[in-house]
Amino acid sequence: MPRGTISRPGGRLARRLAAGAVFQAVLWLGGAPASGQQHAGHMMATDSMGAVWRMPPQPIPMPMMLPGLMGAVPAVTPYLPDPGHDPAMLPEAVLREVVEMADGDTLRLEAGFVRRTIGMRTFTMYGFNGQYPGPLIRVPQGAEIIVLFTNHIDLPTAVHWHGLRLENEFDGVPGLTQDPVEPGESFMYRVYFPDAGLYWYHPHHREDIQQDLGLYGNMVVDAPAPDYYGPANGEDFLMLDDLLVDEGGLFPWGREAAVQTLMGRFGNQLLVNGEPRWEATVRRGEVRRLYLTNVANTRTFNLVLEGAEMKLVGADVSKFERESFVSNVVLAPAQRYIVDARFDEPGTYALLNPIQAIDHFNGRFYPQTDTLGIVTVLDEPVAEDHGDAFATLREHADVIEDIDRYRAEFNRPVDHEIELTARVGDLPSDIVAVMAIDTLYFPPVEWTDAMPMMNYLSTSENLTWIMRDTRTGKENGDIDWRFTEGDILKIRIHNLRRSFHPMQHPIHIHGQRFLILSRDGVPSDNLAWKDTMVIPVGSTFDILLEASNSGRWMAHCHIAEHLEAGMSMVFTVDPG
């Protein structure tokens, strides 16, 4: 059950505070010049849109930067989207539409430039079919549709249909299942929907840029049984995101390589469905079904619906075995959860993201809460009251029976083991020295960018994130697992605590489904089929992978910058 737990260092706090004092002293004293980095001269380098590197936004006041890093910027060209003409002439993006499709239908999907107004500011961004998010595709379970995709942005791209067990050639991974779709070119996808649930689509080529600029959309697959879920009075699809902006507008991305690869690109403007705040109005007693998707590059959300009861119903690829009441829901990038919420009393209910952030520079924790949305409950009773059904925690016999076929495999020996770590390349020596000091305590989850300057100077060229096969020593693209369709594999994944600033990793496996059997040796007591799991720092997960879909598939960290910095592998499932 994805319950959020905020970790506290306990007895380590005094040592952590002491480390913060040393950390701050090193920052003030300075050190050797930053090797491998361009300095102030490169600060003025621009691309065709006039993008220029500048100091990243600071979430909290920081002490003086190391003299060796003063003026240092990433050693890649800054990038902003370039429509090739006056951005003011771009179409204003519109809120997504729902596209209901039947088996055999065809959808035309275009990636293009749009003008987005967020708050009081206007930006040049991307959109699918001129919408934010992209069209919500709604289909019946078992349907197959044709998607005619055309690329009208300034970068090569492709569309990945996240979580679907579709044919391998349509998975949308350039270099693995298809060539990238160049600007002006098109590609036909045949998209199959075998499992009921909540899914999403997004680029799988420089997604650190393209997804962040707005290329994402939901897919919902409806089961034929009308009571597949419990009764609800309405539905809301919430795509959670963030955007990094400063006084100059959109903060640039790296053109030749991804930047901010240490912790990933955290935004400072939180968004729900592309807007700074989600708003809804319901009647007293109403039950709303919330379909939650995290599309942020790196941010993990901790969702609390203040004052309302929440019931956890489903995860990535299926319902849970049993419904459960929860006080919060934690979503790492690419994860989805289905939650029912009931609003008993009139008034306002806030959708919050409360976290406990860390100030690495001063060695302290501090609470931080963002309001993502407001639900206004009218003092009018709902026409159809589902209160009794909401109060009942259903057990899903269909899910239990499906999983029963695999329970005999739960205690089998581990077939493969992976460990998650990082390798430092030509990072500035000052950063390496400071990071070596900052090793006494690592939170299980980094909720915010606590060291933006360190993060800013890390790129996919000077830092490598690693998936390592512990039995062979092979890493990332050199790993060569081969299965046969119908195989059941037990896989152990360990997120090493002792590495260069370890982080949580949301690991996504393409084209298959899996069960999380245990975390740190504790068996899971309420299972659901998954395609993405978040592995906290120091944790070990055992999963059971059903190799049901033939082809060459990717497994990777879904922090976009970690993927760009190498954290991916490929496995082959041969036809049975």
Detailed description of the structure:
With 576 residues, this protein is mainly beta. 10% of the residues lie in helices and 40% in strands. It has 8 helices and 37 strands. The strands form 9 sheets. The protein has a 6-stranded mixed sheet with strand order 17-13-19-24-21-22. Strands 28-27-30-35-32-33 form a 6-stranded mixed sheet, with no helix packed on it. Strands 3-7-12-11-9 form a 5-stranded mixed sheet, with no helix packed on it. β14 and β15 form a beta hairpin. The longest helix has 17 residues, at 13-29. It starts with 12 loop residues before the first helix and ends with a strand.
Q: Globular, elongated, flat, extended or rod-shaped: what is the shape?
A: globular
How many whole angstroms does the radius of gyration measure? 23 Å
Residue share in β-strands: 35-45%
| Largest sheet composition | 6 strands, mixed
Distance between the termini: 34 Å
Low-confidence stretches: 1-45
Helicity level:
10-25%
Number of strands: 37
- Supply the helix-strand structural class: mainly beta
Question: Treating each run of at least 4 consecutive H or I residues as one helix, how many helices?
Answer: 8
Widest sheet, order of strands: 17-13-19-24-21-22
Average pLDDT confidence is 89
